[in-house]
Amino acid sequence: MRPAQVRAGQVPIAPRWSPPAPCALFLWGDLAVLVLVGVVATLAMHCTHRLGWPFVATTVLGMVAAMIAQMLLAFAVSPLLGSIESMVPSMVVGMTSPMVVCTLHLLGCESTWPMALAIGTIFGAGTQLYVRLYGRACRHRFARDAARMEK
Q1: Rounded distance between C-alpha atoms, residue 51 and residue 103, angstroms
Q2: In a domain, 22, yes or no
Q3: Among 62, 143, 138, which residue's Cα sits nearest to residue 100?
Q4: 34 or 4: which carries more pLDDT confidence?
Q5: Residue range of the domain that includes 55
Q6: Are 44 and 54 in contact (CB under 8 A)?
Q7: Considering the domain boundaries, does residue 7 fall inside one?
Q8: Could you tell me which of 40, 38, 62 has the C-alpha nearest to residue 49?
Q9: Which pLDDT band, with edges at 50, 70 and 90, does 75 fall under?
Q10: Has residue 109 got a pLDDT over 80?
């Protein structure tokens, strides 16, 4: 289609649907929740590794503590942010960020408090970035598929 044809009214233009722009407060809220979950879960694992117990016991206890903290935080924000929107990404953060502390422990590098805070923050922010980029890619694919179906 040439622009001249469109201007002349020869080709009907289908209106494009675009999703509403998300509220900045919800974006910052999602980020804050994921960072908080990452920090709390990583600190829970860090604290259990500081007990000096056998590795398997500290890992199991740390994961139980991290998942309880993640669930409580996700349930606390679910009325505001939505249950699925807060539970699924926070579960990923709550499981993966504490495992970095375990991996460091296996490699012989004991994590410190600032390191645990940084790990939780990085995993929370990284998950938020991944969710946003994945959502954008899905919207792009859906729009492309809708355009193909119109033809």
Answers
A1: 16
A2: no
A3: 62
A4: 34
A5: 28-150
A6: no
A7: no
A8: 62
A9: confident
A10: yes
And the tokens for 87? 């539970």
Distance, CA of 9 to CA of 131 (rounded, Å): 40
Q: How far apart are CA 130 and CA 117, in angstroms?
A: 20
Above 70 in pLDDT, residue 9?
no
Residues 6+ positions from 11 with CB-CB distance below 8 Å? 1, 5
CB 89 within 8 A of CB 78: no
Q: Please, where are the H alpha helices in the chain?
A: 3-7, 24-49, 55-81, 83-106, 113-150
- One-letter amino acid at 31 equals L
Name the more confident of 78 and 51: 51
Predicted local distance difference test score (pLDDT) of residue 28: 83
Residue 2 in any domain: the answer is: no
Number of domains in the chain: 1
Is 146 part of a structural domain of the chain? yes
What is the pTM for the complete model shown? 0.77
Give the separation between CA 71 and CA 3, rounded to whole angstroms.
54
Amino acid identity of residue 20, one-letter, is P
Per-residue buried b or exposed e for 100-138, using 16+ beta carbons within 10 Å of the residue's own CB: bbbebbeeeeebeeebbbebbbebbebbbeebeeeeeee
